[in-house]
Amino acid sequence: MVCKDCFLMAHIFSLLHVHCKKQFRYLPMSSFLSRLRRHKLLLAFLPALIFLFCSVFYYEINHSFVAFCDTVFRNEITENTLNLHYTLENPEILNLSDPDVSFGSMNPEVLADAFSQQNIYLEKLFKFPKDWLSTKNRLTYDILTSAFSLQAEGEKYLLYDEPLGPSLGTQAQLPVLLAEYSFHNKKDIETYLALLSGLPEYYDSILQFERAKSAAGLFMDASVAQGVIDQCDAFLKTGDQNILFTTFDSRIASLDFLNETEKEKYCSLNRKALASYVIPTYRKLSKGISALKDSSKNALGLCYLPDGKNYYAYLVKDTTGCYDSVETIFKRIQSQLVKDIHTLRQIAQKNPQLFSDSGDETLKTVNDQISSDPKEILNDLKRKMAEDFPEIADVTYEVKYVEKALEDYLSPAFYLTAPLDNRNQNVIYINPKIGYHGLDLYSPLAHEGYPGHLYQTIFSNDSGIRPVRSLTNFGGYVEGWATYVEMQSFSYGCSDNIIAEIYRLNRSLNLGISSFIDILIHYYGYDRSQTAKVLSQFGLNGDGTADAFFDTILEAPANYLKYYVGYLCFEDLKQAALKKEGASFSLKNFHKKILETGPCPFPVLYKYVLQNHDARVKRSKCRSCLQDKTFELETR
Questions:
Q1: Residues 6+ away with beta carbon under 8 Å from 166
Q2: Predicted local confidence at residue 43, as pLDDT
Q3: Rounded to whole angstroms, how far apart are CA atoms 244 and 426?
Q4: In Å, how far are 24, 125, 512, 619, 621 from 4, measured between CA atoms?
Q5: Which tens digits make up the pLDDT trace of 166-184?
């Protein structure tokens, strides 16, 4: 295939040839030779002129693309004040007039308008000539087109989404995000208080959304609704120990830019805001969901909803970033489960003592040797991962424990990401109710910290990914990576390879079985009794086990898949890279490519990781044209 730049040069030469034929056709020989000498001079400069033309065009295209990305980022990030605050510590760098303070809206009409805007972005994206974009911009183009196209595909499933849930819902997660809202100046405090005053409007929009779901016959299962009600009620019962009371006072007390009078003033304003806006809003939400609870028409999987099976297929694609069919993913999960069970059985046959009562003492001894201090564990992980993962500059972080009032409703551990413009603002939360210790504490810290979420977030941001990409959400990459490295961390935390492998297999089987059951319930329509039979085949037949599985998966469809399918996609990518590179394969370089590419759908990741740099850039065959590196700095 002739490259576009060679074709352009050939076209210019053809035009010049026609022009010369017309000019020289009736000339005497002496005039002909004189003009030919002048045109030879023109021909001598022609490659430089073509290079100049291509370079200017290349620069303009990339400059326009970056401007488009920045416009999208500025437009979207200011729609939600909380997102803006967690994305940028200093939003003034956007040179915006003060945007309205808002949580956004879940009003169905507002959401429909947002879909329309996404479609406009997609149309504009398609107008850019992709082959003329720099490597970095081409990657951004691929990611944005994938994200916007998938969102457009999901427009018809607007009311199938579920913002609420006992543990992962907005009403459970939002207090933690507010409790971690950082105060760098007085404006931050005043914006925070304004946000609290806007909570009633936001939760009213959520109730509007839930009523629309109810009217469409899509309201959540009654047991999930009851879980939401219980969580709201628990939040209301905390009184003066409410997380939004205690954390605000402690944050204000630590600020050196406030005097004592100002501190007392802001603490008083916060108490008034909680009493006037937050507490009444949670009470109203609880009552609103109670009124809708009996409207639930489906106590089983998504496939029992109208077009529910297709919606679940879309949800799996959106949640995991894996574009294989649900059937293909299901077979991949089955295959890994069979493999893991076989490996575990082999270990049990060769090491029966580890699966007897004496084995419990062995495991206890191993776990007792591991520090119970989270920071010591994270430092140990940083040292031991150095051989397998590329280095990043040191960052600061805090390890905190979940407030007692929220222990029943939050995950065992989670990471709050650093703003794009402050890599040192990282927080890892641990839920003390779980009682983790030993490897059971070591591996979650690997998942949340090093080489998991904290490390991946900082590395990708340090690699200079475009800010617009922070608007996208690729849970399969993010959680899949954290699970992938968590599996590796067992060998870091335990010097006994067999015990480390038992822990890894146990974690893999837990996630694999949960993902397997998720598909059975939501895609193949298994009910509670069928689910119990499948679980019993895995040896999970304790009292209440099946119901607990069913309720958890009913609340958050495809949630486990983003961890497990994401993990399997990284493992499959590693095997593909091993096969491609052979003896030259480097695990550290493989990880570096993944991290530099950053969060994206797996088809995009596979494309950019498996192809060599020269192949994926598709440089012009004309060495003088489109030298990517010439303009890479100018288009960042």
A1: 172, 224, 227, 228, 230, 231, 409, 555
A2: 57
A3: 20
A4: 30, 21, 48, 11, 9
A5: 988 999 989 989 998 999 9
Structure tokens given for 300: 């089983």
Contacts of 412 (CB under 8 A, 6+ apart): 430, 431, 434, 436, 444
Query: In whole angstroms, what is the distance from residue 282 CA to residue 274 CA?
Result: 10
pLDDT, one tens digit per residue, over 441-482 is 999 999 999 999 999 999 999 999 999 999 999 999 999 999
Q: What residues are paired with 397 via a beta bridge?
A: 426
Q: Which of 320, 333, 290 is nearest to 516 (CA)?
A: 333
- Whole-model pTM above 0.85? yes
Pairing of strands 426-430, 397-401: parallel
- Selection from 12, 14, 128, 10 nearest residue 68 by Cα: 128
413-416 and 426-430 strand pairing: antiparallel
Q: What is the pLDDT of residues 421-448, one digit of tens each?
A: 999 999 999 989 888 889 999 999 999 9
Tokens of 435: 């009682």
520 three-state secondary structure: helix
CA atoms within a 13 Å half-sphere pointing along the CA-CB vector of 54: 26
Per DSSP, the three-state class of 464 is coil
H-type helices in 154-185, by residue range?
170-179
Residues in the chain: 636
| End-to-end Cα distance, the chain | 30
CB under 8 A, 24+ apart: contacts of 88-96: 88/419, 88/420, 88/421, 89/182, 89/184, 89/419, 89/421, 89/422, 89/425, 90/184, 90/421, 93/421
Distance of CA 312 to the CA centre of its chain: 19
CA distances from 340 to 70, 502, 504, 538, 563 (A): 46, 10, 10, 12, 17
Average pLDDT, the chain: 88
Question: Edge-to-edge, what's the strand order for the sheet holding 413-416?
Answer: 397-401, 426-430, 413-416
DSSP character for 583? Answer: G
Task: Identify whether the C-beta of residue 550 lies closer than 8 Å to the C-beta of residue 521.
Answer: yes
> Which residues are registered as beta bridge partners of 415?
428
In order, the DSSP letters of 328-355 are HHHHHHHHHHHHHHHHHHHHHHH-GGGG
| DSSP H stretches of helix in 254-356 | 260-273, 279-292, 308-320, 326-350
Q: Which two tokens stand for residue 252?
A: 């204000």
**Cβ atoms of residues 303 and 525 within 8 Å:** yes
Partnered with residue 427 across adjacent β-strands are 398, 416
**H/E stretch holding 380:** helix 374-384
Q: Which residues contact 633 (CB under 8 A, 6 or more apart)?
A: none
Q: Can you tell me the mean pLDDT for 110-123?
A: 94
Tokens of 630: 């010439």
* Preceding amide of 451 cis, omega within 30: yes
Distance CA 515, CA 507 (A): 12
Q: Measure the CA–CA gap between 343 and 501, rounded to whole angstroms.
A: 9
